[in-house]
Each structure stands twice: as C-alpha cells, then as structure tokens.
UniProtKB/TrEMBL annotation:
Single Gene Ontology MF annotation: RNA binding
Signal peptide span: 1-22
Family matches, as InterPro entries: E_motif, PPR_At4g14850-like_plant
Keywords: Signal
Superkingdom, taxonomy of origin: Eukaryota
Keyword Translocase: no
GO annotation terms (biological process): RNA modification
Official protein name in the record: Pentatricopeptide repeat-containing protein
Length: 147
C-alpha cells in the first residue's frame, strides 16, 4: 500500500493481521500498535438485533476473527495481558471452540506461565470443551481417504 501512496488506517491493519502474521512480516507491536488495535476493537459499532419476541437488542459486535487476529499477534510478540483479554472475549463469543483455549494455553506455556495454562485446561474440562484430533485427506488414483 505504501508504494502507491496509501496509508492504512487501524481497521485495515486489523484486517491484515492474520495474513501478515502468517507471512512473518508483521511488526505490529512496535510503538504500541497492539494496544491501538485493541482500542479499535473496543470501538466497533453496536449491533442491533431482535429477539424471538421482536424486542430490539443492542449488543456490541466484536467478531471472533478480529479477536482471533489480536490473539495470534499477541502470541507472536509475547503480549500476555492483551492475549488474556482476547482469549476471554473469544471464550464468550465461541464457548465451544477449543482452538481459542489451546491458543491461550500455548501463549501461557511459551511464557513459562504453567499455572495459568493449567487453569485454562481445567476450564476446558469443566465446560466439556475438547480439542478434536486433526485429520487429513488423501486422494490417490481417483479414490480418497480420511486418516
């Protein structure tokens, strides 16, 4: 974007976090940008929905992808405080998604915070959230198999 003279806003940066982080070119934590990204997430617009009886509900819409991108960036740069906030937000949005819990456990373990990691594991067990084993597909001579 810079070569063509476009300066990205923080929302654009949030959208690019997962792909840039994957490519290893992100330097989001320089100059406190992770905290700025968190501030942007906090100011996302209010979502208005109706419940089953037609009453209006006002709730903040903070998409799981946005929180997930922040969680991944926090893991990359070792920002545990924001990782905890993002992880807890993801637990509320997607309570059955074991991947979010495992990501937070891995962050804690990577920072030698083993008691905190064990606490998240216990919470997973109490809520009966289980990590599903990985699977792969293989196609060989027009037949496929799952293993």
């Amino acid at each position: 974007m810079r070569p063509i003279g476009v300066r990205p806003c923080l929302i654009t940066l949030l959208a690019l976090v997962p792909s840039c982080n994957f490519l290893g070119v992100m330097r989001l934590n320089q100059g406190g940008r992770l905290h700025k990204a968190y501030d942007v997430i906090q100011t996302l617009p209010v979502k208005v929905t109706k419940n089953a009886w037609g009453a209006l509900l006002f709730e903040k819409e903070k998409p799981a992808r946005t929180w997930g991108a922040l969680l991944v960036a926090c893991r990359t740069y070792g920002v545990v405080g924001l990782a905890e906030i993002a992880g807890r937000a993801l637990f509320e949005i997607q309570p059955d998604n074991a991947g979010n819990c495992v990501s937070l456990v891995n962050i804690y373990s990577g920072m030698s915070m083993h008691e905190e990691a064990e606490q998240v594991r216990r919470e997973m067990e109490q809520r009966d959230v289980r990590r599903l084993p990985g699977r792969s597909w293989m196609i060989h001579r027009k037949s496929s198999g799952l293993f």
